[in-house]
Transcriptional regulator, HxlR family
Amino acid sequence: MSQLSEETASGGTGATGPGTTGAGAFAADVMNGGADDPTATDAGVDAFDVFSRDCPSRVALEHITGRWGGLTLSALADDPLRFNALRRRVDGVSEKMLSQTLQALERDGLVIREAQPVNPPHVEYRLSPLGRQAAARLRDLIALVEEQMPEVLAARGRYDEGRGAGWQRGQK
Amino acid sequence: MSQLSEETASGGTGATGPGTTGAGAFAADVMNGGADDPTATDAGVDAFDVFSRDCPSRVALEHITGRWGGLTLSALADDPLRFNALRRRVDGVSEKMLSQTLQALERDGLVIREAQPVNPPHVEYRLSPLGRQAAARLRDLIALVEEQMPEVLAARGRYDEGRGAGWQRGQK
């Protein structure tokens, strides 16, 4: 289980959070908790369950759906991009966040970093086959959200009107 | 544009963050920034673009794909659930986070909170038709991640071996 070694655990924690505070603590959970089970049993698909807090699939899902991870994968779905072009496309991402996001996605095998041995260096990021599958599903979801935003905005309006001053009451 | 009124802006900020610090600041951006454009122009689908930092669709996408939002929607895809059953299903979510997540999803018109007028009170959460569409796409993505976790773990192993002590170098 070299992928969950002590060194990896600390390295992985550093690269975990595309914009989400607390992801580090979560990754630490995975390392210290039940993360052994799915890989140790050498079982198939059923071994992984994002609903289980200690399953490494939850962290992978967070890399894919995180604030910057989702946009980054979607942005790369059309063509490979260099860092700065990607940063312009994912409007609002900081250099540091994009760098961490790409690192996490590369480590998970979703993005491939391709450095061509030329001078000056030319580095491109592109999707792996798995990254393309994930990006296709993300884009389905993004298309739905963009299409249905008028409905979402209307729902927000109804919700806020209905709640008035009581909007912030607790809900269970 | 009642849905972007001053009152809504502050209320919305409070309920924005299912587990992501900084979502509040982001929502404030939307309120102060270019959020007027898409609704003011009364344009169609093309007006919304999650890649644009000020587009309200980005916040809606974050509610759907956020750490707890995605799991909550997916958990409700099968059956309506009461708060405590939902909390057990979404392993690891705090009461406060689940409450905020449900509030954000209800406000966006994805989840319906149904309080039956009985004693003791019986409250269930279920998906709206739009919520079902989003949940179906999320579950496609989750299924892919769970299925491909062996490949993800293998990629992590290769990445960490290849990098060794140089793992934390900057990447661009």
Chain B is about 55% helix and 5% strand. Chain B touches chain A through 82 residues (CB under 8 Å). The beta strands of chain B are 111-116, 122-127.
